[in-house]
């Protein structure tokens, strides 16, 4: 894959994570952050970065956990 396209994945992911912090409402923040983290997972795989990939896999799991927990009213 072209290096510029790979870099665009990283920029898009970073922009989404940044935008999520500017939003109001926990659900919205978590959903946008999940999308950003998912794109960061793809980016981490493309640049062969285990640290980027694992961190963002962890973030997606944490966000899904808390969204599910909030939905069930716990």
Topology (SSEs and partners):
Layout: H1 3-22, H2 26-46, H3 50-71
Helix pairs in contact: 1-2, 2-3
What this model shows, in words?
With 74 residues, the protein is mainly α. The protein has one domain (3-71). The chain has helices at residues 3-22, 26-46, 50-71.
Defining key terms:
mainly alpha; flat; 74 residues
Largest sheet: none
SSE sequence, one letter per element: HHH
The chain-level mean pLDDT equals: 92
Low-confidence stretches: none
Which term fits the overall shape?
flat
Total beta strands: 0
Distance linking N and C termini: 44 Å
Radius of gyration: 13 Å
Quick take:
The protein is mainly α. It is 85% helix and 0% strand.
């Amino acid at each position: 894959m072209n290096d510029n396209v790979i870099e665009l994945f990283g920029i898009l992911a970073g922009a989404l994570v940044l935008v999520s912090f500017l939003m109001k409402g926990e659900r919205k923040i978590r959903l946008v952050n999940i999308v950003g983290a998912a794109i960061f997972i793809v980016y981490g795989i493309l640049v062969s970065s285990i640290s980027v990939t694992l961190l963002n896999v962890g973030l997606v799991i944490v966000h899904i956990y808390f969204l599910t927990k909030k939905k069930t009213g716990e």
